[in-house]
Amino acid sequence: xxxxxxxxxxxxxxxxxxxxxxxxxxxxxxxxxxxxxxxxxxxxxxxxxxxxxxxxxxxxxxxxxxxxxxxxxxxxxxxxxxxxxxxxxxxxxxxxxxxxxxxxxxxxxxxxxxxxxxxxxxxxxxxxxxxxxxxxxxxxxxxxxxxxxxxxxxxxxxxxxxxxxxxxxxxxxxxxxxxxxxxxxxxxxxxxxxxxxxxxxxxxxxxxxxxxxxxxxxxxxxxxxxxxxxxxxxxxxxxxxxxxxxxxxxxxxxxxxxxxxxxxxxxxxxxxxxxxxxxxxxxxxxxxxxxxxxxxxxxxxxxxxxxxxxxxxxxxxxxxxxxxxxxxxxxxxxxxxxxxxxxxxxxxxxxxxxxxxxxxxxxxxxxxxxxxxxxxxxxxxxxxxxxxxxxxxxxxxxxxxxxxxxxxxxxxxxxxxxxxxxxxxxxxxxxxxxxxxxxxxxxxxxxxxxxxxxxxxxxxxxxxxxxxxxxxxxxxxxxxxxxxxxxxxxxxxxxxxxxxxxxxxxxxxxxxxxxxxxxxxxxxxxxxxxxxxxxxxxxxxxxxxxxxxxxxxxxxxxxxxxxxxxxxxxxxxxxxxxxxxxxxxxxxxxxxxxxxxxxxxxxxxxxxxxxxxxxxxxxxxxxxxxxxxxxxxxxxxxxxxxxxxxxxxxxxxxxxxxxxxxxxxxxxxxxxxxxxxxxxxxxxxxxxxxxxxxxxxxxxxxxxxxxxxxxxxxxxxx
Length: 718
Fold this sequence. Notes:
This protein is mostly beta strands. Among the domains are: 2-93, Hepatocyte Growth Factor (3-Layer(bba) Sandwich), CATH 3.50.4.10; 290-363, Beta Barrel (Plasminogen Kringle 4). Helix content is 5%, strand content 20%. The chain has four helices and 30 strands. The strands form nine sheets. The chain has a six-stranded antiparallel β-barrel. Strands 19-20-21-24-23-22 form a six-stranded antiparallel β-barrel. The longest helix has 14 residues, at 2-15. The protein is globular, with a radius of gyration of 30 Å.
């Protein structure tokens, strides 16, 4: 019996070897089958024996022990982000090569050797087929993909769309080629040729150092040697890969540099080589000292609002101020700097008619200082009751204005009254210096969220009042300046508390965080439609505002129910959530600005994502994190080497081409904001991506500017 159990466990363990795993991925596809299982191996077995459709992948949610089998994979459908899920794809359906004569080929090639497009297997024009999905149900004759249903010795083939040519073989690479996926095993290495997007990372392919031991301390085998392991990575064949001596290298896009080992029992291992990092932008550097030669902040906009040209670029302006010529000047990206000792930080502009301008940065000594309060403060002046001065400073502890209604429009109960709500404290006698003479909104207990009052509604004891700040609250202009942490900082960095005050946490009724979103005014939040797939009922969700930690223990926290869900047009990943009561706007809760209708964010614009999402072990769990990266124009993003035509017009791309940071550190539904004219503008809603922080695989965001009419109309009608 014990032997039987051991064999069963061994079989279950090996069942996963046929799959490739992607953490934090989700596919929304019908049909699908759902099961409750005990382990991920059980889920793999369910996929292998699925009878309702050909199972190409499965989703496993460990916390819920949910198993979802699917007929789709990353080659056929969009991959969405979902923190708690893992996507397992069958390798055989990712292969774009043939073993032997290719009877098991399940790839997506659909052209013949002469370049003719294949006819769909179920169609009868231009050729009536005698081999169809019905006659060969186990051959996976789907779409117009090349197949070999009857073991033709010439390999996979298809009927063609050329009336003069009934059928022809397809030109598909042999899996025994030089470039293979290595499998670390004590037995002979297995080989697979896998679609490249499933294996690309920020990976050290340009590493040229001299480390020659693996992460476990094994000595590397020389690249020009075939002992103890035969391989195809020959230095003379691959001169551009710098396969020197026995140094660790990455000639094939592995996650990190590696080498074959001198141990006969271990074919290869990764090497432990730290990633190089760009210097971190100093926190809070929003002004410059002296002439600004030492300024290392993140501003990239001129005093007139023009975007800075990259220092490495010669378009639209040719120049000699390059990182190579001024290595000590920190000429990174398109950040404002002063490499030549001018009067202040400056940059070349992206406007062909304006060569350069000073940047929109103040001198540190010109910023107003914080005055110390006098030892014996003067008595407060009599409060004015004019509308012009009806505003609060800070949290409104000194507010003495005339407002006497709550944020919901309910009249305030007089502070001296005990009807309808009796109270022992907060009356003119207990707090004679707090302005509690009538029923005006006040803040006698120094509440961080501002003035409040007892209400005349018997069912609501007290509520906050909406009192504007005297300085004026403006969308996209946080009171706490963000770090604006960007560059190849793996995992991003922990944000300053409340520096992204439009970030909300979308939660279950049990208050479990699962998605992000953006406050766009006091009543509405913008998020991703796929975040709402668990339920169509507004009562299934809660929204938290004004928090920095996922635990949400801050006194500034505001909690709201959702009163209405409005999903975007069919085929789009955007949704509006109406709050059951308006958010109280203050220095910790503030909307982001919406962009102009149909505005296209220029390529290389620096934008930022935020969220409490997966940190991939980089630290900062539980705190709001941020990371910045450039926008990539859709034309580039849709190249075969990037996302291969998957990005639609109503979507946009952003990310570092070389990988390293991505919105897997943020949350689905969360904001992508871009800085312009001293304001953060909501340009994107985090939607989907292929993997996490992979090279050539930027994140995809719903382009908010394409939905301005829909947003405005939806809010107006609801």
